[in-house]
Amino acid sequence: MHMGLDGKKVIVTGGGSGIGRATARMLAAKGAAVLIADIDTKTAQETVEEIRRTGAEAESVIGDLGAPETVASVVDTASERLGGVDILVNNAGIMDDMAATADVSDKSWERLLRINLTAPFMLTRAVLPYMKEQGTGSIVFTASEASLRGSASGTAYTVSKHGIVGLVKSTAIMYRDQGIRVNAVTPGGTSTNISVEQPTAPDGPTVLGSYAHNRGRVARSEELAAAIVFLASEAASNINGAILPVDNGWSAV
């Protein structure tokens, strides 16, 4: 089946590096115009320049996606410079310090939830009017193995990624009759620049370390990007509300 990505207008958050950069490059290679949203000016511009060198269209917006003004700027820029929004890839996120519940600070909890859950919610809410008006749209989230189990990360990160699953499924069912599909991938171990913060308490890392042998090999960012691009495309036209593990079978253990 034709993927139907030529001429599509796409927002990719966290597109400056890792899974986001690989996804942006892959979408551009298939004819999409891409807006990179990232907090890092240098890496975002590197991705934009790399895509432009191939002859594809790319723009960037720099800022903290947890801030409503950044979300507004991302969507406004996509509308003004790309001509609309057909696809949103909610990929940006951060890791925690593997802390167990009793050791999670208010600051860490609020930061993880703001960036990993509230920011993609706000972006999704902001693009839905565009997609509803045109009667079509695709939204893909980068969730996590921590969306599926309690043994993959600390409490704050795990809760934020479980929240993504609820957001995906609720949005998928609410808007399926308006031509909008919403799905997610759940990466296992993947080679990216996202890093675990230095643990400050022993309980989480001690417990979680006993499950590490189940993880399988570390994936390349391009392997996750391929799954994201598939879900975003017309090749996945009847897939909606799916949570797709891309984890070398870790979720099957």
Write the layout of secondary structure elements.
Layout: E1 9-13, H1 18-29, E2 33-38, H2 41-53, E3 58-62, H3 68-82, E4 87-90, H4 106-134, E5 137-142, H5 155-175, E6 180-187, H6 203-209, H7 221-232, E7 243-246
Parallel strand pairs: 1-2, 1-4, 2-3, 4-5, 5-6, 6-7
Which strand-content bin applies to the residues? Answer: 15-25%
Largest sheet: 7 strands, parallel
Question: What oligomeric state is this?
Answer: single chain
**Total number of beta strands:** 7
Low-confidence regions:
none
Sketch the topology as an H/E string, one letter per element: EHEHEHEHEHEHHE
Radius of gyration: 17 Å
Query: Shape from CA axes?
Result: globular
Helix content: 40-55%
**N→C terminal distance:** 32 Å
Helix count equals 7
Q: Kindly report the average pLDDT value.
A: 91
Secondary-structure-derived class? alpha/beta
